[in-house]
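Renewal narrative, Specific Aim 1. Our central claim is that a sequence can be written position by position from structural information alone. The example that follows is taken directly from our test logs and has not been curated for this report. It begins with the structure tokens describing the chain, in the order in which they were read.
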């Protein structure tokens, strides 16, 4: 991606006034934007447009944002493409669920267009920073993470991690030996900077430990603070 090629964003909401508002503010900041109001059209358009980020309404007829996000995460082409959920559902459990299915962020309606644009910019900046690590392999104990291939191995055996699990583990290995609070992990992995339950971090750590088997002890719990990957 060069400076002359704007980031492409696909916005899906069944309300035309919402997509028009978002398109106006995102285009004002230089983004290339395609909007849709029909959830059934999202995959054909995604393959044609190849967006760098999705903004998805959660509550839509026929196919909701959660279902679409799951399908995107199962598609090799869009497995790593960031998703922001936009929804009128404000319950804590809804936000946690949205993050757990693989979304980068969860913004409640009514929303500030300016705040949403800032969050989009933050997510894409972070992705560009992560791309500078391409070609590297991260290691901790017998754990190897190939950042180019997005593959994890323990004792040379492949381990299946979700996109979010891979992001979380790679961040902690990059910061090996340093304690990361749950709030830090939420901000850096999920781009969430508001007060919320931190159990989504605990849930992901538990799943990662289960998959790492005998190397699970490398992820240490620091009581009352958070987690760290041992540098031993």
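The sequence written for that structure reads:
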């Amino acid at each position: 991606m060069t400076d002359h090629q704007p980031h492409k964003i696909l916005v899906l909401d069944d309300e035309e006034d919402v997509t028009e508002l978002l398109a106006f503010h995102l285009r004002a900041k230089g983004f290339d934007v395609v909007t849709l109001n029909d959830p059934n059209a999202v995959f054909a358009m995604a393959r044609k447009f190849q967006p760098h980020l999705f903004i998805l309404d959660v509550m839509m007829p026929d196919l909701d944002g959660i279902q679409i996000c799951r399908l995107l995460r199962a598609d090799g082409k869009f497995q790593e493409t960031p998703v922001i959920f936009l929804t009128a559902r404000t319950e804590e459990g809804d936000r946690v669920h949205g993050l757990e299915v693989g979304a980068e962020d969860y913004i409640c309606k009514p929303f500030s267009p300016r705040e949403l644009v800032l969050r989009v910019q933050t997510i894409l900046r972070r992705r560009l920073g992560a791309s500078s690590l391409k070609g590297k392999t991260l290691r901790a104990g017998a754990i190897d993470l190939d950042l180019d291939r997005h593959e994890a191995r323990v004792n040379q055996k492949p381990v299946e991690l979700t996109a979010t699990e891979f992001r979380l583990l790679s961040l902690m290995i990059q910061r090996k030996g340093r304690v990361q609070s749950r709030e830090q992990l939420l901000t850096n992995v999920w781009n969430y900077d508001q007060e919320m339950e931190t159990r989504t971090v605990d849930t992901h750590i538990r799943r990662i430990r289960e998959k790492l088997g005998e190397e699970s002890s490398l992820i240490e719990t620091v009581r009352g603070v958070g987690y760290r990957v041992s540098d031993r």
